Amino acid sequence: WLTSCSLILPTPSFLHRNPQSTMARHSLRMLWIAWLFFRIACAMRENAHAGLLHSMSAFDNLSANVSANVSANVSANGTLRAVANATVEDMLQEMAQQQAKSELQPFPDDPFKDDPWFQKRRDPNYDPFKDDPWKNRNDPFNNRNKDPFNNRNSPSPSPSPPSSDHSWSGHEHHYHRAAAAGVGVFAVFWIIWASFFCCICCIPTCILCRGHFKARALRAKLEHLQLKHPPHDQRHPVNMLSDGMMRLAQEDRILIREKVNMAQELSGHVLGYSIQTANSFEVISVVGGGEHVLNCREVQDLQAMLGMNLAGGLQAMGVEGAGHWAGRDKAPFRMLVGLPPAANPMETGKIQVTVPEGVSSGQQIQVTTPTGEQLLVAVPPGVAPGQTMEVTLPGKHNSGPNMQQVMTGLVPGCAANNDAPFLYLDRPFAIDCCCLNRPKVDVFDVRGTATVKLGIISDPFAWMDMTFGIHIGPNAQESDPPALIARGAACQPGAVCKLCGVCCGRTCREAYLEVVDPNDKDRTVAFITKGWAGGAQEIFTSANSFYVDFGEVKDPVCKALLLATALFLNYRFFEGRAGSTQSSSN
Fold it and tell me: Long-range contact list for 313-320, CB < 8 A, 24+ apart?
């Protein structure tokens, strides 16, 4: 009944965003099945022992009589060995008398009466421990002089003559056969149950423990790298730099924040069917006080979007094989990384003004607004001549969003791309299987009229790790040795369970990938960290956040490739999938 319930009852939709939650659900099912196998084995063993009671009834009655006689005689005589010998002699004589009176055989329909193996063991003089070297060793009761319970005044009982009564040997034969059968069945089911338990509980537990300790070691390395390479304060405002490479060159740590795709999330939670659309990301400067550095917009690839949603629909209709192509990890994507356009002062209500020479703090200067109005603005304290300050424009602003803003809020990727692109990421379509035809991302520099290939981000096959190879150069190939390698355990708490991050703090919220230099003894030079975007956003949406600590990496080309690696990591391991959110994903 419990197994049927675990197979039928659905799970919440947000648990199907990670393949690890599906593995946990299948593990729960297999654990119930293993428990049922164990109970069946115990029941069969109990039935086997219950069958022995019928064949051993005569022996049980005889043993009860012997125990009663021994107890009575011990209290009367006070000598245990003499009483036991006399009782056994009386028992043998009684059995011989009963056999002499009755000519009935104990087992007239014995199917093994002509079996020489059983005939040998039915011999009254058969001693199964005849050749046992431990039979007479260190036994204080074999020597009458050393027996403290032996009554030397009482005559020793004479051995009884051989009897033709084979009733006990027959009982012993049936008992051993039934016991062997019960133990064999129990051992088989015990092995099956132990194998299921090891595969379902022990192995996943070991993998999760490995991920936990790997995450702790990587976090210690990250803190050491941040202490070794602190952020520098000599940086220019991003609005003064019109080149994307220059903006990346001055950054020590950036935050890649994915915008929540409301149409995708609402369709998954309300309708129970997730519709995949284009995504959009913002690159924020962590050191520069949260300045908006770059935009990353996924190009609307009609073929990829239709392919994912069609595969999800076929899976919902019962075609389980189609679900393999419904996820973001298999679908191709194209992405443009560019500089965000300058904000319209009339929309924001603020402008940037440079303080002229000879003006000190507290003095008023005349500012001309974009509409031609003249304003008198006081220079705030701490602003020196030549620096910029923010001036709020008077006037009325839009009280409500227009239709374009509403559509942009629902589907961030559908907004008009007014960015000045300088990077282009292309992941072509590929049918990968284990170590064959692994996915890759080509990174191009699209500044100016010429398109220059910067390198390749490869995803080599790894059993329990997230591993990416960074190949630099216009002629780079996947088969070439990588210049940098980003790697981290795939079963870190921050990458497997989002619920753990709600109650366990930073220990279970973040997942770490170290970037090492294989040409310098795998020295750690940078870090990519999957951050924590907040409890509600992490649990109920597929929007993620990533931090990139450049550390020792100073080349802007390598920084651009690390930015592309973080985006590729998101699509490979942390993005959602199209289709029904109530059906289990493979």
Answer: 313/578, 313/579, 315/579, 315/580, 315/583, 316/273, 316/579, 316/580, 316/583, 320/586
